[in-house]
Structures are given as structure tokens and as C-alpha cells.
Amino acid sequence: MANVSVAAEWQLLYNRYYRKPELYPMRWKHVDLARHKVAAAPFGGPVAVIRDDSKIVQLHAESALRKLRLFNSAGHPLADTVWRHPGGRLIGMSWTDDLTLVCVVQDGTIYRYDLHAQLIEPNISMGKECFEQNVADCAFWGNGIVCITEQNQLFCIPDFRNPKPVPLADPMIEEPPRCIAVIEPQYTMSGNVEVLLGVADDPVVLVVEEDGVQRLGEDLLRGPLQKMVVSRDGKWLASFTHDGRLLVTTSDLTGVIIERECESALPPEQIAWCGMDAVLLYWDDMLLMMGPDGDPVHYLYDEPIILIPECDGVRILSNTSMEFLQRVPDSTVSIFTIGSTSPAALLYDALDHFDRRSAKADENLRLIKPSLPEAVEACVDAAGHEFDASRQRTLLRAASYGQAFCSNFQRDRIQEMCKILRVLNAVRNPKIGIPLSIQQYKLLSPSVLIGRLINAHRHLLALRISEYLGMNQEVVIMHWACSKITASLSIPDATLLEILLDKLKLCKGISYAAVAAHADKNGRRKLAAMLVDHEPRSSKQVPLLLSIGEEDTALMKATESGDTDLVYLVLFHIWQKRQSLEFFGTIQARPLARDLFISYAR
Amino acid sequence: MAQIPNLDNAPINLISIREQSQKELINILKNIRGKKCLVIDPKLGDSLSLIIQTSLLKEHGVELRHLSADHIQTDCTKVVYLVRSQPNLMRYICFNIHHDESKGLQREYHVYFVPRRTVACEKVLEEEKLHNTVTIAEYPLYIVPMDEDVLSFELDLAYKECQVDGDTSSLWHIAKAIHKLEFSFGLIPNVRAKGKASVRVADILNRMQAEEPVNSSDMVMPEINTLILLDREVDMVTPLCSQLTYEGLLDEFLNIKNGSVEIDASIMGLQQEGKKTKVPLNSTDKLFKEIRDLNFEVVVQILRQKATSMKQDYTEMTTTSQSVSELKDFVKKLNSLPEITRHINLAQHLTTFTSKPSFLGQLDMEHTIVESQSYDICFDYIEELIQKQEPLTMVLRLLILFSITNSGLPKKHFDYLRRELLHSYGFEHMATLNNLEKAGLFKKQESRSNWLTIKRALQLVVEDTDTANPNDISYVFSGYAPLSIRLIQHAIRSGWRPVEEILKLLPGPHLETKRGAFSNSPSFDSLSGVSNGIAKVPDGRRALVLVVFVGGVTFAEISALRFLCSQEGMAYDLIIATTKIVNGQTLVETFMEKLG
User: Fold this and answer.
1) A500-522, pLDDT tens digit by residue?
2) Count of CB atoms within 10 A of residue A169's CB?
3) Do residue B175 and residue A562 have CB atoms under 8 angstroms apart?
4) What ipTM was estimated for this complex?
5) Contact A426, A432 (CB under 8 A)
6) pLDDT, tens digit, for every residue of B516-541?
7) DSSP A15
8) B247/B256 Cα distance (integer angstroms)
9) What are residue B150's phi and psi, to 5 degrees?
């Protein structure tokens, strides 16, 4: 039966089921994660890959120059660029919340790339000390970075939008820390970032802030920590101790939640939280999932993997595939567990009978009559969590089949879910490659998703989605128009104008002046002049006309608008720019301008 | 200050407008910490006194000063200038700051422009190299509620600027103010305008709507149904005639300023010799509300009646024994005593002016001119006034009235009167005469006058006007029905269409449009027809018409509109907005140019 095969893919960890569906086979070729440094963005974001210069690798036919390559989550190439930056080794790279790739090199310079592998100027420097002492290691979070120098000094940039390096307190340690983790500013008491350092040969965790260092866990730890990771909400700390134990504590190290022996005393290569209730440890070819109790789950991999923590699970990236390891949602469990007799499971079964024209369908329905609404709700919910479109459809059909028999169910629930799923399926398409789960989608919010799509130049899809969800399309069209201007240097002005107007008119109240300003910045003055003509707001139109040197039109438009202030603006502009004789000639023909100038001159 | 009018009975929520302005001003003061010296330009100060109490300003650590060419003496290190955006006021500020600099005083300067910063003003600061020293911001005060049904844009020079200087800034200001009202009360669906400036305002208003639309998608009924815009240029006759309503006369002789008059304390029966006292005049005063719009003759009678009945009550009180409830009624009546005394004092003061033969002669002449029958008598009278060197404004008033009703004077007379004027009053009045000519108020005759046609068609002169029980607006001028109000009467009742022929005789184009979602709904067309009940807002209130006078309005006209409003069968409430409340004298004064 279908139900059995679904549940057969699950693994039981203590009392919870976990599943690991494959999201995509990776479409990339000749990418060996073992030889590369990899940065993957959460929320199904892109993957950046560059050959790791700290490893000795054999170059086969490839050039000695390193290439930074960007892929989407399905391994579809987005862009690449040759890495030629000075400044020593690449220490770390990561994606920020707004999907810029930040790369830190040894001398403390930070290079930023956008999704199209274009370098974003200017480069940021971590400061003089970093330059002199060399950056040894770094840790990232949403929009910030902490660097530790070879002399164990810490510097952080709390927000890349305002890239000012801030020195943190001196941890006063001799040797480099064994491990480093950060608690994001939004989860700390002070509102500033807290850096956790696992110190060599000292059973303590140092908490470094801007204005002081604390020692935590002295009475809790029996030895130095080898590896640690903070949970997504900043409350828990999972760490791997010197003697091969996994230790889960509160992030202020006051209480132990879980303490479990692992099979190896060697520190794992990677450690990550899977949702909020399991921790993943990865050694060379083994992935171990530890829950609060019961036997850990083993997964074996014969190729290197990268763990990408998400809010509701972990994505596992390997050379050949992208998988998503998550706890099986409760609604899905209730439907697909082997031998489940929950109302939802019976409803699902009823649909199966109904499709096979079996009378048992009715019998099933009768059985669950009083709890039909919950059963429908469970089916809808389970459909939302599925990645497979056909299974989504079956579950939704089961829900709508059940709904027909229950009068008091909120009918728009199904409709709403269909809407969300259509959006999710659209962005999950391997070409787009954003494998969002429904929970991630809700956390990310549709507007951010649209922002990400337009940044990736997926304007049509973004437009369709925002139209479908009833959101304002102005952002999308505006961005499209600007990108179009940038990208089409070879198209003549008149043609381009037509193309642009065709789309701009879709959205009422869009600022033509803003698009025109962009055109002007790209050196297309004539196009700007033509565009600005369509701007209805004179207060925006006139200054722009002046900046592109169309004084006469500006004067005409200002006079038409009736706003004398705008007329003055133009007058003073012309007065400064032209010979006085010419100026008087210009205003002589325009009574309002002339009269205004006279009353000003009085 | 008791001057702040009570707006509780306003047909739309004017209180919210005033409170908004209050809050904005207080926020400005709050944002500048510590003690500060608030320097206000005097005219703006007058307007602000209708918005906010001085005591409230003082609560926010403010020392008040008026802006002038003199430097400001204060201990505060923070100086806040609150000025209308006029370049000449900038010069004062520059004087002030330069003076402080020369004394080595370190101060923090903030300049708040009312209603908005303008390039011209910033240019002045820039030329004086002060634009980095001062912090520039805006205080968006576009509209000041004067009374329950009167709004003012406080643009006292608007008419002259438009007509003489060609500076149309005020039109933008008016449109912006109306647009702001629309944001609070909904898009006004019907617009009627007459006159060049008014049509331009309607045009700018539409432009603003296109640029920054008021959300009309939600099908809420807009609170204001119709907007009527009227140029002062269309009817210059009315403001030049002497107003004969109580409030109008008070304004003519005592000059009402921001809802109060300032007179000698002795007139009000106070014992302080030689001191001035301020008497507030607005609808908060119940008795004033009752009598302000009546013809002065009637007012005197009413006051007499009130006094007699009071006296009667009093005698009854002393002679017979009274029950407690009757006593209570009497005491209640006594409460209105101060109001009665106040108005009796004022009325008595007014009669000293109105009984003067010169005033009666002037009234007589105004009527003769308006009747437009005997050209020579009028000409001789004005000539005589000039020879007698009567006050110039009074002479100009009659002269303009004369010129307008004849659509200019024949060249010979025009030149002659000009020469006579300059000879008797001095050459420095050349500029004034020039201004008047530019504005078309005192000019050479170019075409035949159509005043007679207009007068007849609109029934502007009504014989046998009963001032005590009026049945027509003509009571406000004891026989002359103001042209402006007649036009509005038509505009409200049936739109422009039936009077189109007459409108063509008056200066400027006219316009009638529907806007927004209502522009193509047929059910709303009936509005312009004879509409009883249809125009009523569902909750039983009457629909609202906003009448905007571009270039000023007189109290007599306001009274006439209030009279229209109170007539039976009138389906609308009226709200009046104006650039400034004017009378013949103040209007003429704006055209006077001081040379040297």
C-alpha cells in the first residue's frame, strides 16, 4: 500500500520520526565538495563554491586561477568570476540575509559579491589591527561577522549595512580557541553580539562582548570543548567535549539538557541543529543524529556533505544531491504511520477506496464523522509539508473529499493552501531552485521571497507571484525597468522606451522619475528625458529634468504645475548656469517666470 | 486668550484640523530640547493666536518674540524662527544672526517655514552664507479655522500678488489647502469655479489629485459635496460698498482682527483710561452669534428690547414676591448681562460713526454708483472728495467702485482724476495708481459697461428691502444684493448652466466638473438639478458646500451666505474659506505702495 511505502522512508529517533527526501539531484558537474570552500544560504538560497586554498589538491585540467562559482540550490549555475584578490588566504565566506556573499581574506579585507558574481564596491576592511595581525578565523550570522586574529583579538561588524568594525574585549588567551560560535544580537540581553569561545586546555567557555569577557560553565564542564553550535533561537548550545560526548546546555551554560556518549572521541567535522530537537554530527563518512533520548540515527555517506541548517531541519548538500532532513510533521505522521487509525488516515484511505469505487469509502467516512473537520485540517496541513506535487495533490483531494461531507469547515483553508503550494512549487522548480518548506516560507514572508526573486533577475516569476498573492507589483516592475536599462545598452532609446512603457503602465502610481534617474545614471540622458515626460508628479519630474539638462522643458513643466516653488527652483538653476542675457531671453517669453523673478529681485 | 473660537457646532470636524496644527507645532517645540526663544513674524503670530494659546507655548519653555529688523535680546541659546516663507522675512533673520555673530554669541538657529520651505527663501540664506548655520524645517499650516463656518488661508496679499505682480504662489497654496481638507473629508465630487484664478486653482487641485490621489475607492460618501471657487476679481463691487451688518460695520470702523477688535477701554465702560482692550467676536458669544449677521438698524432694536425686558424683570423682582424657580430664571438671565452690556457699548460706539453725515453721504453715493444712473453726479462727488483731501483710501474706494461699474473711465476723465489725485495727495501715490490700473480696478474705458445688464439680470438692486424680516440677501447692504452671493446662490441651486450668459459678461472663464468615482455615475447628476432631499447625507445632516473666495471675502458676504443657509428649502450647509477676511479699506490698502 502507498501508506506503507511513505512511512518506510522514515527513521525513528526516540519518539519522533525523521525523513530525508531528496530535493534535487545536483545539476552541477565536476564539483567535488572536498576540494572546495562552500557557502550556502539558508531559506533555500544559493550556494557559493570556490577551490579551498588551504588544502593541497591535484589540479587536473583546470586552470590554476581560482574561480568563484555561484549555483542555486539545484546546482544550476548562476554566475562565476575569477578570484584575483590579494590579501592572502580566503578565511571564510557566507551569505548575508539580503543574499550578498561576503568573503573575508587574511588581511581583514571583506569582498562582497551580489547574486550575479559582481563585486560590490567598496570593499570593507576589518581595520588596521586585523591587517597587521592577520585574521585567523571568523564566524558569521545573519548580517554580521566576527573575526579573530592570530593574536586572538576579536573584531566584529554588527551590520553590513553600516560596515564599521568594532573591537571586542580582549579574551586574554594565549592559544587560538578550539571553537567559536556567536549568539546573534537579537537574542542577547545587551542587544550586542556575544561570541562564545571554547578555549584549549581550559574547561570553560569565554563569552566575549564589546565591554567585557565572562567565564561560563566552570562547574559544568570537565574539559575543553572541541566544537559547538548555538541553536537558531540563541537559547541552547550544543557542544562536543574533549572526551567524545555531545553536550546540550543552555546558552549561558547553567544547565545541562542532554549529555550523550558518541562513538568517537575525534571531534566531528560539522555539527548542526536539526530544527530544535535534534543535533547532527558529521564525521568523515558518517552522519549521526542525536535526539534527547534513545539510539542515535546513523546515515552513511560515501561522499563529502555540507550541512545547511534551516529553521525546521537541515539541508544536506553532497556532490550529487540536495536532501532535506526534517522531523516528519505531526499531521503527516497521523496519516502515514503504519497501522494508523487516526481520522486523517481513515479519510486518506477513504479517498483511495472512493477512487477504486469501493463502498468501503462510505464506511470509513461514517467511522470518523464526528472528527471529520480535524481530519480535513490534517490533510491540508500535511499537503503543505510535502515536496512532491503528486502527493500534495492526493492529500488535497482527500481534504476536499472530506470537506464535502462536513458543513462547518472553513472552506478557504484549502484554497489558501493551494495558493501557497502553487507559489512554493513554482520557486522549487530546479531552474529557480529555491526549495522552501512551508514553514520557511512563512518565516521568510512573501515580500522577502519576491525581493530574492527580483535580485536573481526572475522578474516574470516575481511579477506573477505578487499578482497572484495580490501584492503591490511596483517593486518588481521598478526593479525590472532598472535592470532592463542596465542590461540593454545596445537597444536604441526609442525602442527601449517602448519596451519600458509597456511594462511600467501595468502599475499605477509608479515613479517614472526614479526609472529616468536610473537611465541617466547609466548614461542614457535621452532615454531619461523621454521617460521623465511620463512622470505625473511635477515635484519629482522637474528636479530630474534639471539634472539631465532639460531646463526649458523643466521650466514649462514647473509653470504648468502651478507650484511657484518649482518655478523658482528652475529659475535659480538657469540663472546659475547660463549667461544673464540668455537667461533674461528665456524668461522673457514666460510671464509667470518673469513676474516671479521680478518679485524675487525686489 | 479667549479668542480661540469654539468650533463645536461646525458642520465638519474643524476641531481635528486645529488640533492637528496644534500638535504639529508642539511637536516642533518638543523636538528642540530645553529653553528656546520662539521668534514669530507678526502676521503669522496673529494667525497662530487662533490656533494655540500663548500659555501653552510657554509651557514648552518658550520665550516669545516678534520678528523685526531689530536684533533679538534673549538669554536662550536656541532660537527658533517661525516665519512665512517670504524672502523679505529672511533678510530680518539674516540681520539677526549676523548681529549675534558680530557680538560673538554662539546660538543654535532653527528656521521653520510656514507652510513649507521654498527655494527663494533658502536662496536668500545661501547668499548670506547662513544655510549651514541654520536648521531648516517646515510647519505645514495651510488653513486656520476662524469660526464655526469660516476658514482662512491667511494670505492677505494674495489678490494683489495675483493681479499686480503675477505671482500665483497663493493659488498653489489654496489648492494644497483644499487638497489637505480632502484627505480628511474625502474627495469633493463637484467643482464649480468662476474667474481666472479659481479655474487655475481647480486645475492645480486636479493635478494634485493625479499626483497624490485621495483614496476615493472606498465608497464612503465624501463629507463635502461641492466646491465653489469664486474670484474676487469677478465681483469687486461688493467689497467696496460699506457693509451694513453688525459684524460688517464693526469691521469697517474698528477693524476686526483674527476674531477680535481692539478699542479704548473707556468705550467698554472700564475704568482704565487710555488703555486698549481686546473684545473677542466669535460664535462662542451667544448673543453675538444671534445678531452678528443682522442689519445694524435691527441690532439696535434688538438690544433695546433685551435691555427693556431685563429692566422689566428687574422691577418685577423688586416689587412682587417671587417663587424660587422664577428667581432661578431671573438669575439665569442675569448671566447674559455682561454680553448685553458689551454689545450695547459696541453698538453705541458704532452709532457715533454711522450717524455722521459724511458716512451717510458716502452710503448714498455708493448706492448711486451701484444704481449706475447718474454718471455726472458721481464724478463731481469724487472730484469734490479729492479737492477736500478726504482720506485717500476712502476716495480710492469710491473711485474704484465708480471705475468698475463703468468698466473704466473715459480717457479724459481718467487722466484728469489721476492728475488731481497726484496733485492733492502727492506724487508718491503714482505707484499705487499704477498698481490699480494693472489690476484693472481703476483704468481707461475700453468697452461699454455691462454692469447694467448684470445688475438687472441678477436683480442686484432690490427696492423695498425689509431689513427687519429679510427675505433676500439684499438686506446686508440695505438694498443691494451682493453679486458674489447671487452667483453662489445660482451655483448652489442649479449650477452654472442657467446663468452662463451672465457669467460670460463677468471677467474670467468658468468651469464645472465632476471628479473621482462620481464623475460618471448618473445618479449624482440629479444633484445639480433642483435637489431637495437627494443631496441629504443619510444621517440626516445637510450636504455640505465649501465656498472658497480667492482674494478675500467681507463679513457682509459671509452674513448673506449664512442667511441663505438658514432659509427654508435650502438643502446645503455652507462652509466658507477665503484667502483673508477683507473690507473695502483693507483691500485698497494692499494695493498701496510705499515708495522710499
Assistant:
1) 888 888 877 788 888 888 888 88
2) 17
3) yes
4) 0.84
5) yes
6) 655 444 444 334 333 333 444 455 56
7) T
8) 9
9) -125, 125
Q: Does A538 touch chain B (CB under 8 A)?
A: yes
Q: Which of B119, B201, B203 to mutate against chain A (most A CBs within 10 Å)? A: B119
CA distance B17 to B22: 9
Distance of CA B90 to the CA centre of its chain: 26
Give the angle A182-A184-A185 at the CA atoms, nearest 5°: 125
Report how far apart the first and last C-alpha atoms of chain B are (Å, whole number). Answer: 38
Q: Map grid coordinates 536573481 to a residue.
A: A456
DSSP state of A33: G
Domains of chain A: 31-167 (2.130.10.10), 537-602 (no CATH)
The pTM of the full predicted model, rounded to 2 decimals, is 0.72
- Termini Cα distance of chain A: 94
CB contact at 8 A, B281 and B250: yes
Q: Which of residues 158-187 of B touch A (CB under 8 A)?
A: 161, 165-169, 171-172, 175
Pull the grid cell for residue B37.
Answer: 526663544
The C-alpha atoms of residue B245 and residue B266 are separated, in whole angstroms, by 24
Q: Helices marked H in B212-336 — which ranges?
A: 237-240, 246-254, 286-291, 296-319, 324-335
Q: What is the dihedral of CA B486, B490, B491, B494, to 10 degrees?
A: 170
Burial class, A58, CB count within 10 angstroms (exposed 0-12 / middle 13-18 / buried 19+): exposed
Locate cell 433695546: which residue?
B304
SS3 category, B478: coil
Q: Are B349 and B267 in contact (CB under 8 A)?
A: yes
- Helix and strand element counts for chain B (H, E): 24, 14
- A595 → closest Cβ in B118, B165, B212: B165
Read off the pLDDT of residues A85-115 as tens digits, 9 standing for 90 and up. 888 889 999 999 889 999 999 999 999 999 9
Q: In what order do the strands lie in the sheet with A144-149?
A: A135-141, A144-149, A154-157, A166-167
